Amino acid sequence: MPVLLIVLLVGVLAYMWVARRGSTLTRDCRWRLDRTAGVDAWRCAACGAAVTVAAGKRPKDCLRPVG
User: Fold this and answer.
1) For the chain, where are the E strands, in sequence order?
2) Would you say the pTM of this structure is higher than 0.85?
3) Are strands 50-52 and 41-44 parallel, antiparallel or unpaired?
């Protein structure tokens, strides 16, 4: 029984690690498509950062200045 609990704990931790690796989008930046600046232009609703990405993609990184 204790072995099963250890295996379950390791499985949950591994899942959490894999799920976190795929997402770098933070809660600080909320990206919105800005059609006034171009077709593939995105603007952050929180900090005002602007970025242009490839067609069909969404920005993942927070561009909020540190500090």
Assistant:
1) 31-33, 41-44, 50-52
2) no
3) antiparallel
